[in-house]
Amino acid sequence: MKSNLFITFEGPEGAGKTTVIQKIAERLAEINIDVLATREPGGIEIAEKIRTIILNPAHTAMDERTEALLYAAARSQHYFEKVQPALDAGKLVICDRFIDSSLAYQGYARGIGIDEVLSINEFAIGKKLPDMTILFDIAPEVGLARIYATGNREVNRLDVESLPFHQKVHEGYLLLVERYPERIRIVNADQDIDSVVEDVWSLLLDAIQ
Ligand code: TMP
C-alpha cells in the first residue's frame, strides 16, 4: 500500500467537501493508514491568520492580486511547515483545497489568468502538484443554496460574490480537468453525503493500492 501521497479536494462552495473529508479521514484511520487531514487557507497558525484577513467580509477593498498573493503566501507556509514534513514521515495527506482553488477562483473567475496565478504559486511552492485531486462537482446555485439553507458555517467574503462569479469558478475547474486529466478526478457531489463518501472512498482505495 502506498501511503505518502498528497491528495487534495476541490470544488465550489457548499459541495460538502469538509464533511466528506472528516468521514474519509476516520475510515483511513480505521484501516491503520497514518493520515493527516488539513485545509487551505489555514492548517497552521500563520496561515490561519492569513485566512482571517482574506475571508473577512469587511475587506471589500481587497485587490484581486493581493488576494492571489495572500493565498499563495498561506500555501507556502502551510506546505513547508506541515504538508512536506508529514509526507516525509510517510503519512497520507488529505487537504481541503490547494493550488487548483487559486487557479479556478483567482486565475479564472477573478480574471487574473490561470498561467499568471500558476507562476505566483510556482514561486511560493515550486512545481509541486498533488498526486491526486478529487473535484466535487455540483452546480454553483445548488452549492450556494446548501450554505444558506444549513447555516452551519460562517458565510465568508467569497461566498457573498455573485452567482456569475461562482459559475466562472465552476467553469474554471472544468478547464483544469482538461488541463490535468490524469490528476483530477470528478465526483458527483449532488447526491446524498453517504453516496459521495462511497465514491471518494473507491477513488482513494485505487490510489493507495
Ligand atoms: P472554505 O475553506 O470554506 O472552502 O473557504 C475558503 C474560500 O477561499 C473559498 O471561497 C474558496 C476560496 N479560495 C480561493 O479563492 N483561493 C484559494 O487558493 C483557496 C485555497 C481558497
TrEMBL record:
Pfam families with a match to the protein in the record: Thymidylate_kin
One GO molecular-function entry: ATP binding
UniProt EC number: 2.7.4.9
Superkingdom field: Bacteria
InterPro entries in alphabetical order: P-loop_NTPase (IPR027417), Thymidylate_kin-like_dom (IPR039430), Thymidylate_kin_CS (IPR018095), Thymidylate_kinase (IPR018094)
Annotated ranges, domain Thymidylate kinase-like: 9-199
GO cellular component: cytosol
Alphabetized UniProt keyword annotations: ATP-binding, Kinase, Nucleotide biosynthesis, Nucleotide-binding, Transferase
Binding sites annotated in the UniProt record for ATP: G11, P12, E13, G14, A15, G16, K17, T18
Single GO BP term: dTDP biosynthetic process
Catalytic activity annotation: dTMP + ATP = dTDP + ADP
Function: Phosphorylation of dTMP to form dTDP in both de novo and salvage pathways of dTTP synthesis.
Similarity section: Belongs to the thymidylate kinase family.
NCBIfam families in the record: DTMP_kinase
Name listed for the protein in its UniProt record: Thymidylate kinase
Source organism phylogeny: Bacteria, Bacillati, Bacillota, Bacilli, Bacillales
